[in-house]
């Protein structure tokens, strides 16, 4: 399970360096996210732009990470590919996450809100 | 003999029409998450040229939900088993059948009535239970049969009719 995390503009940006977020790695993803998000940051932006495939197990893991961060911190999603976005839409989970076109758009939006 | 353009070694096959690639895809594999990944990759590669990116994504999602469900729940107790996957393109879509020797599928998974009454509510942030709703949403003619300790699940992924050129 490859994740890359860096602090940018007051947000913790975590990039999933995997083509698939599925049943085979959902539990490891949750565990790694727990470690990575220990560093303090008000916002956590999950960059999914390299993920080509997400199934219901991967979706469940993303939801679990969001719940673990709440209520102090929000999990926002960036860079959803069409087949990943479709899973969020079909399950209507797109209504509970902030979705951004990419990480830069997510960070710009944060700055606007702060300003 | 070669002057008319026929190839050497083709004796006896001259009358055979150009053979289309086999229409049925069949794959049997161990019930593990990693073997499911390989099965999905193999199945997708086989049908990729006949599908739009969106259709390919839907096929992969539906098969992933069904197959991982068998790994997690069908064989969850024993931890090992075999899954057989068959796919065939017909006029209305892609007919899929999946068989395994795991435990019986709970009838609640198949009941169309579960659709909205038990559908996970996004507001409650459910971490699971989406799999069967995705399957019901995306396929048609879902059927299930159990005989001699074997589960057979069949459904069709609807696709536009094949273009005849």
Automatic annotation (TrEMBL), chain A:
Gene3D superfamilies: STAS domain. Pfam families: STAS. Residues 21-110 form the STAS domain. GO terms for molecular function: anti-sigma factor antagonist activity. Belongs to the anti-sigma-factor antagonist family. This is Anti-sigma factor antagonist. It comes from Rhodobacter aestuarii.
UniProtKB/TrEMBL annotation, chain B:
One of its GO terms (molecular function) is protein serine/threonine kinase activity. Gene3D superfamilies: Histidine kinase-like ATPase, C-terminal domain. Residues 29-156 form the Histidine kinase/HSP90-like ATPase domain. Keywords: Kinase, Serine/threonine-protein kinase, Transferase. It holds the Pfam family HATPase_c_2. The keyword Kinase applies. This is Serine/threonine-protein kinase RsbW. The lineage of its organism: Bacteria, Pseudomonadati, Pseudomonadota, Alphaproteobacteria, Rhodobacterales.
């Amino acid at each position: 399970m490859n994740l890359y995390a860096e602090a940018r503009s007051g947000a913790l940006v975590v990039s999933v360096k995997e083509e698939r977020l599925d049943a085979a790695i959902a539990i490891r993803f949750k565990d790694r996210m727990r470690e990575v998000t220990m560093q303090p940051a008000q916002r956590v932006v999950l960059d999914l732009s390299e993920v080509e495939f997400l199934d219901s197990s991967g979706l469940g893991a993303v939801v679990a990470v969001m719940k673990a961060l709440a209520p102090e911190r929000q999990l926002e999603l960036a860079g959803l590919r069409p087949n990943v976005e479709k899973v969020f839409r079909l399950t209507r989970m797109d209504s509970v996450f902030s979705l951004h076109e990419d990480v830069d758009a997510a960070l710009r939006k944060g700055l606007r809100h702060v300003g | 003999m070669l002057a008319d353009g026929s190839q050497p070694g083709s004796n006896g096959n001259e009358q055979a029409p150009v053979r289309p690639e086999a229409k049925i895809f069949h794959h049997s594999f161990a019930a593990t998450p990693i073997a499911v990944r390989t099965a999905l990759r193999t199945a997708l590669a086989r049908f990729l040229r006949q599908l739009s990116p969106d259709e390919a994504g839907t096929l992969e999602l539906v098969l992933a939900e069904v197959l991982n469900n068998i790994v997690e729940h069908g064989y969850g107790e024993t931890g090992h088993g075999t899954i057989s996957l068959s796919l065939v393109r017909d006029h209305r879509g892609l007919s899929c059948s999946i068989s395994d020797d795991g435990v019986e599928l709970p009838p609640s998974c198949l009941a169309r009535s579960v659709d909205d009454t038990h559908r996970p509510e996004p507001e409650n942030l459910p971490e699971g239970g989406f799999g069967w709703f995705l399957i019901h949403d995306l396929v048609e003619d879902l059927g299930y049969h159990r005989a001699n300790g074997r589960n057979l699940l069949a459904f069709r992924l609807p696709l536009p009719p094949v273009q005849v050129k």
